[in-house]
Write a structure and sequence with these properties.
heterodimer, A: alpha+beta, four-stranded mixed beta sheet, 18 strands, B: 171 residues, two-stranded antiparallel sheet, two-stranded antiparallel ribbon, 16% strand, elongated
């Protein structure tokens, strides 16, 4: 990325200035979600959506992912259990990094893990596609959450049996009103995540 | 006798100038071409290669100005003294040199990208996006924004201010 003001080049994945007058500077990453539009609409009914640029809108594609999956990769890591274009959810915590293969997350629906000494939780939303990550700690205690086995979509914590939603907030039970701290979770191709996180581990159930 | 004395140094002088012109033209083209070759889409860039490319990219606007300026002076010095086919070589050399000098000043890496100049936003009611589409979403100070992936995958970057926070959304 290049900024108009100084012409500095910024590395997209890290936000670091790598060339030009601002070299060495670092943009602060912000929390963002990658999710299904229908799910986002329910959570943010007053939200605003980026409008299509009229002159370019016929160029937009929704099914480009199979094409990109076939593009050559510029760097690969043979000997690792994942293929270059496998999609992972990349997480970083206290200097530790781990790749969670998207397929396993989706099939497990809820993943409880520890990363960098912190209890973390990855949840697949009610739409079966959106993924969020949280610190699974409430009122200074580590908690464990499970998907409800019947009835409406929801999560139950094992210590108080409170009900939690996909935004990480307790909506009923003793924990009502508590919200878990959300974590950045980067959806990325394995080769790219591994390239920028040499010490990454891979999640295995 | 007298004529051969004056002519000989003249032609070897021309030869020397021609050689210098050739090297200046090559240098100018190299200053543009090497970084363009190293930094290609879908091509592996070694850390060392990238350092070389960045350094050349940084200094090439000035260096190409010097080399192409010198090449122009030499071709003017030679012009009246050389044959037609040598003149056409000079012209060809100057065209390549000038092209390289212009390209050294251009952000040609960005030609394939189409950033959003002035992003517009719509309410959910006024948005026609299919429910199963993916979006990138942020929320600051109560303001929620969604950036449809099908738009972001084309434009790659959008500058926005959400809830007072200036952000660059990239995909």
């Amino acid at each position: 990325m290049r900024d108009e003001e100084t012409g500095t080049w910024w590395q997209q994945i890290t936000g670091k200035a790598i060339f030009g007058p601002m070299k060495g500077q670092q943009l602060e990453p912000v929390l963002s979600d990658e999710m299904i539009y229908a799910t986002w609409k329910l959570e943010a009914p007053n939200g605003q959506v980026l409008a299509p640029v009229t002159k370019d809108s016929k160029e937009y594609e929704s099914d480009w992912e199979p094409h990109v999956a076939k593009l050559p990769v510029v760097i690969s890591f043979p000997g690792t259990p994942l293929q270059s274009r496998d999609v992972v959810i990349g997480m970083e915590m206290n200097g530790a990094s781990r790749a969670y293969p998207l397929d396993s997350i989706v099939s497990e629906a809820v993943v409880q893990d520890h990363l960098g000494g912190t209890p973390i939780l990855l949840v697949v939303g009610p739409d079966g596609k959106s993924v969020r990550a949280f610190v699974s700690r409430a009122r200074s205690a580590d908690i464990e959450l499970f998907r409800n086995t019947s009835g409406q979509w929801g999560l139950t914590d094992s210590s108080t049996a409170s009900q939690w939603n996909f935004q990480g907030c307790a909506i009923s039970g003793p924990m009502r009103g508590e919200c878990l701290q959300e974590l950045s979770a980067l959806k990325d191709y394995w080769f790219d995540w591994r390239n920028y996180h040499a010490g990454t581990t891979i999640y295995k159930r | 006798m007298a004529s051969s004395l004056t002519e000989k140094p003249q032609s070897s002088n021309n030869f020397l100038l021609g050689i210098i012109f050739f090297f200046l033209a090559c240098a100018t083209v190299a200053l543009f071409f090497i970084p363009a070759y190293i930094i290609q889409p879908f091509k592996y860039e070694s850390a060392r290669g990238l350092i070389v490319a960045m350094a050349l990219k940084q200094y090439s606007p000035w260096l190409t100005l010097v080399t192409s300026g010198a090449a122009l002076i030499i071709s003017m010095m030679l012009w009246r003294k050389i044959s037609v086919w040598k003149k056409s070589l000079l012209v060809l050399g100057m065209i390549l040199t000038c092209t390289a000098a212009v390209m050294a000043r251009v952000d040609y890496f960005e030609w394939m990208f189409h950033p959003v100049a002035a992003p517009g936003f719509n309410s959910i009611a006024k948005t026609s996006l299919d429910d199963p589409e993916m979006v990138m979403a942020v929320k600051f100070n109560g303001d929620a924004r969604a950036y449809p992936i099908r738009e972001m995958a084309y434009h790659h970057i959008v500058n926005d201010v959400v809830g007072g926070v200036p952000i660059a959304v990239t995909y």
